Amino acid sequence: MKLAKAALAGLLAVPAVVGIPAVAYAGSAPGCSSTVQIGTTAHIYSGGTTFASAKQFKGCGKNWAYLYVWSGYRSTHSSWNACVAVGDNTSDSLEGTQCRSKSTEIWSLGANTLAHCTQAIGWIPDGASAKTSERC
To answer: In degrees rounded to 5, what are phi and psi of residue 66?
Structure first.
């Protein structure tokens, strides 16, 4: 276990060395301990800096969207608002939308959309947004 943690720490340190953003690690969705990321990670940019990462997960029979506000943004801003949702492209709707102020991490509510084409969508209200790749 210690070797695995050391290897993971080493892998996460490599992007900083080569100038590629480090990957934010998401825990599990609230009420679901067995989520797995599906699709790509999207990045929201604001004022020339990376504001947040958005990811889509599946688990416990649902889709979940996740947003992580980067520490670089948090360290230079005293407040922010962000939202995240599962975009259901089959019905052209947003599912499980959650918005928070000054939160480092935001999980959407679980969406009953596993049989649909979906993507995670993260956004700053009245500002920038980003979508992960579509998963069907």
So the answer is: -135, 140
Q: What is the pLDDT of residues 49-64, one digit of tens each?
A: 999 999 999 999 999 9
Is 0.70 surpassed by the pTM of this model? yes
Residue 97 has a CB neighbour count (10 Å cut-off) of 17
Residues 45 and 40: their CA atoms lie apart, in Å, by 16
Tell me if 26 sits within 8 A of 33, measured CB to CB: no
CA-nearest of 108, 93, 101 to 56 is 108
What tokens were used for 124?
A: 């700053």
Asked if residues 83 and 109 have their Cβ atoms less than 8 Å apart, the reply is no
